[in-house]
Design a protein that fits this description.
It is built from nine helices and no strands. It is mainly alpha-helical. It starts with 6 loop residues before the first helix and ends in a 7-residue tail after the last helix.
Length: 173
């Protein structure tokens, strides 16, 4: 990752609190995470921002994690009109109807057991890899799964922060 400052990082550093809060909410729906990132501005480098993000993620409570997960649609069902969830779940775009039906069934079983969506950093993963991951994780305890979710959210946040800080003025998010 880049250790330098970027135009997007400068915009995040210079934005008023309301604008920065909205941008950070697009990265992660946890208000606690966003508040911690906001409070530490300005960031000298993107690496410093990533370090702050990782530290904030490590401090999230179970309730904060639940809030963060609520911002993510189920795998295989990206939010309509949301280019971020469509881009991140592109591995399911070409999946067979059979795989999509299996993912729906697995998602529902997972959600029934854990009370939240199956969360995985889907970027770069195929539909089959995501199916295999949910199959492997469904037997976890809630405590094990919460820590896996924390790691996966951290990966997603880094990807989204990279995109946020790389964007030049006028680029679409």
């Amino acid at each position: 990752m880049s250790s330098s400052s970027t135009p997007g990082l400068s915009r995040l550093n210079d934005a008023d609190d309301s604008t920065a809060t909205a941008a950070l909410h697009e990265v992660c729906a946890s208000r606690a995470w966003g508040s911690k990132i906001l409070a530490q501005r300005p960031y000298a480098t993107t690496d410093a921002l990533f370090t702050a993000s990782d530290a904030a993620m490590a401090e999230l409570t179970a309730e904060d994690l639940a809030e963060a997960m609520a911002g993510h649609p189920p795998i295989g069902r990206p939010k309509p009109g949301d280019p971020t969830s469509s881009r991140e779940q592109s591995g399911m775009a070409g999946a067979s109807d059979e795989l999509k039906a299996e993912m729906l069934e697995l998602n529902l079983a997972y959600q029934e057991k854990f009370g939240h969506v199956f969360l995985i950093c889907a970027s770069g993963r195929t539909g089959e890899q995501m199916r295999d991951a949910i199959r492997n994780r469904i037997d976890n305890t809630p405590e094990q799964e919460r820590e896996i979710v924390r790691v996966e959210l951290g990966k997603i946040n880094r990807i989204r922060l990279t995109r946020l800080t790389a964007l030049a003025e006028g680029d679409a998010a």
